[in-house]
Specification:
The protein has 314 residues and is an alpha+beta fold. It folds into 2 domains: 2-119, Bacterial toxin RNase RnlA/LsoA, N-terminal domain (TATA-Binding Protein), CATH 3.30.310.240; 131-311, Thrombin, subunit H (Beta Barrel), CATH 2.40.10. It is 18% helix and 44% strand. It is built from 5 helices and 17 strands.
Amino acid sequence: MKRLFSCLLLANALISLFSGDCAAETVQLGSYPAPVMEMKEQVMDWLKGEGFRVSRETFEQGTVVLEAARARKRMRIGIEPRSPLASSLFLDGMAGQGSDRAVAARLKEYLEAGAAASGARAGTVTPPLPGGVESREGAVFCLRASVSGSPMGFSGFAVDRRGYLVSTAHDLNGVHWVVVGSGTGNEARGEVVWRDVRRDLSLIKVGRTLHSIVSIGEGRSSPRVGERIFLLSCPAGSRGATAAGLIGDPPAMVNGQPLWQVEMPVSPGDSGSPVFDAEGRLVGMVKGRYRGTLRRGFLIPLDTIRDFLGKGGL
């Protein structure tokens, strides 16, 4: 498999033919709990911090290959899907001075630090998850879709017992169907019935009754800056992943839309997750994290979700 990967890289850059690419060392960097496109962003951030410039990016059969250069050093990094929510990485040295293994060690240390920060929040939070929040876990679902041939994973939550869920829209361009999984392991086919790209919200319909839902009407549209909040993410096993944080700053306008700024671990798969106050009242939905950080994110406010659902007839 390593030899096949190296030869695939060679075919993508004929200029490296005379550098003995198939004889170059390929270093396996391991597997990490993030979809391919999320891992690509992390690798791009690391390359930028190391002074590398990405000169070429290719995508074939779900695998992303980044070619990067810094001074006389050139290398390729491959990111391939291991599962819908995990990726494997390889580094292939091309030419120039410096040890491939030294570069690989720095990249691996960076990726492992990010994975550790993500994994540290799985299970219960400290202090214990408030009862009002814990009771909402059954309304949170894991969503999977194939986007341009690449598997993507994110979260969503039920808002209507007739089978309606709400999630983000930014990973669903051109997607009409998703797989909706619950914490009990049951899966169903979900139809993307409406996307609002401007608000970054989507409405998804499954063909069954949903017994546990998140009440939009009982939510809070104006949490206080500094108030403690709780995230429920894509379920794993019988419990969802959880995180605690704080409302960091008042809403900021981003591309014409208000977004709450929060101090909270935000990890791959969290987009579309509901966020609650200590009483279990919805205050917003995770849009994503601030690029380059692990503990600062953005929430779509409750009022934006209400307006979206109102226009969708719910």
